[in-house]
Design a protein that fits this description.
InterPro entries: ATPase_NBD (IPR043129), Heat_shock_70_CS (IPR018181). The chain has five helices and twelve strands. The strands form four sheets. The chain has a five-stranded mixed sheet with strand order 3-2-1-9-10. Strands 5-4-6 form a three-stranded antiparallel sheet. Strands 7-8 form a two-stranded antiparallel sheet. The longest helix has 23 residues. It is globular and about 60 Å long.
Amino acid sequence: MAKTKVLNIGIDLGTSRSVIACDNGVRTFVPSYVGFPKDAVSRKMFGRDVIFGDEAIKHRMALNLFRPFDKGMIKYADTNAESKEYKNALYVAKALLQHLVDLAKEGDQERGVDYIVRGVIGAPALASRKNRKALLDVARGILDGVMISSEPFTVAYGLNLLSNALIIDIGAGTVDLCRMHGT
């Protein structure tokens, strides 16, 4: 019988780079680019169907590159849920999230372990309900438990600055200000 282990992950799916921090010590980032080989030659060269991050940027001429996020949220999330662009952005974002979770699991030295993966995904402070639902759709099937949290609040909580502080989150897609005045 395989051993079960809980893995807690903090995730920031950013416009230019996506970051994870885990309770097993893994802290890393990946540029938010996902590439798919353009033809059979490039597919054979890479030996796989999806390329992520720096490797995708390096080999951009042989790949169809996608950036699934814009202004900190999934592209086209505010449009029709049946649109081709939205479904494509959702698929690419899901592939990137799966890659990040796989990186977190690689950092653990134990083999033959079944993971219960729980995550907190940061969302921009002004993300709409539709945007947050899109993030939940991306996490479905990858994370066993997920919570969507405002990025500035998550930073304030992590730094224990919950009263009398101004949190400024300057990202590639958004700038968020959050006044933490306590209770």
